[in-house]
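Record type: monomer structure entry
Structure origin: computed from sequence
Chain ID: A
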Amino acid sequence: MSKQSKKKKIKTVSAPKPQKKKAVSWFGKESRFYWIIAVAAVALYFNTLSNQFALDDGLVLRDNKIVLKGVSGIPDILTHDSFYGTIGDSKNLSGGRYRPLSLVSYAIEISLFGVNARVHHLLNILFYALTCAVLLRLLNRFIFPQNEIAAFIAAALFTIHPIHTEVVANIKSRDEIFSLLFLLLTQHYLLKFLNESKKSIHLLAAACFYFLALLSKENGLIFIIMIPLTVYFFSKEKRSGIVKYSAVFLAVAALYFAIRVAMIGLRNNNVPGVMDNPYVLADAEQKYATILFVFLNYLKLLFYPYPLTFDYSYAQVPYRSFTDPWVLIALVIYLLLGIYALIGFKSKNIISWCIIFYFGTIAIVSNILFNVGAPMAERFLYQASLPFVIVVTEVFRRIYAAAENHQPALRVAGISVMGIAAVWSAFLIQVRNKDWKTDETLFLHDVTVSTKSARANTYAGIALVRLCDAEKDSVAKRGKAQEALIFFRRSLVIKDDYMPTLLNMGVAYSRIDSGDAAEKVWAKAKSIEPENPNFSGYNNYLGIFFYNRGMRSGGLHDFEAAARDLEKATIYKPTDANAWYNLGGSYYMLKDYEKARRSWEKSLQLNPNLIQAKQGLMALPPATTGQ
């Protein structure tokens, strides 16, 4: 056979045939790659141990009343929406969130160690390291069974990919870690059953792990499609066998769905706001064109994960049309990928499996099937990065195998590229982990990336208000409050009715003692959401502000100004007897005796022992009546 014909065979290589391997001894020579992967995962994220809670950690842990009960809260965790302990029935969340497994783990940790961010971060790291080791096991045994180095390279690329920082550094994203971990175990034990043992215990283990994956996060449902495809690509099962074994996992999914409906109901909440329903303002063309543009951004982040940000919400990703060149480029790329996947399907080309896997993982979080609350997110690429690193490894493996006369040079080039990628990735991960240290560090960094996002600008303003409150120096306090106002104004330019902006902008004004500006912005907020519970505290502030200013005006004998402010004080604090009394005094000095009488009578209703008010009424001219 000629060299040319050999090369053609290499180029059309299909998914490798699994071969039975000996069990790994965790302390033997054959386990060295597993230890390298696990230790690397821990080392890369070790600096998150000094991080506190950030972003959505409050929703599932720090502020979740059910989780904070510890193990005694587990029954409630299993029977409620995941955010129930924080925001009740999650009416602003389409479809609800039933992800009890990660919440159960937090509850156990709280019972054992209390609310301890260091412990929660440590376990995130360990679960991630375990995921990477399990991935290597799956790759080594069934995906690249004849190439231990290829399996290691793919697992290493996954381990060091900076796109995973949000998942590992954000405690809340343990649901993502659990989901992929159990999905990998599902595939491992399914393929072990099919290719090695035919023992029912291994099929049962695969089914159990799949159930745990679904309890971790709903995106495991995509494996209803991936499981039969995995059986087809990586086993010798005939069509009947594929259908038979896939039915087992379909039954598991049906069981999960039944439990989910029983626990939180079958809901599909209408979310009218663009902040939590990213395409509600878009027409059909804009929606699907923008989704394609997001898909292009996902590919960019997989190849070049910089810069990273927690927020891609309105209007960081502007609506696009099909006349946009970038949308057309995305359309061409994804069409070519789809065509390649179809062409290689019959020959069981491993890249075809990866493309379908990738399409499935991003489709379920794309807002095509249902609203996921955001146009895109880096955590959505956690599972998608797995087929990506397998493709990268497989492409290099094929090039290396085909280039018989250049393999030494390719080996050096591959090692060099891998080394550079590892150093660069480690640097990015370490730096990004520090951004996740607190809400304040995260929000103030990421607003420099998500400059067009109303939410990112608002959260940066909130961070500065918090720093203002923690600051002891009066000049520095005022400076931080004024800086916060800059971000709030930017947010209002993007979305002028965003409630968190309006509420917190008023707080920032209050920190520089600008009650009039605070009153104005809170009035706008009240017109949008009059029942917001924050207004009771804001009204108290405004009542005190206008009372104090009114008293100062009265001391300067500016009784008209005093009356105006004290009138506002009684509006915001209608039960303040002193405000009513001093308002009466201002009207008395303005010779508006009827208003003075009504104010003093009101003060006495609130405090019958207020002698000054009684004296004021006695001092009124006899002509003043209650008519």
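Annotation 1: Confidence is low (pLDDT under 50) at residues 1-13.
Annotation 2: Residues 11-402 form one domain.
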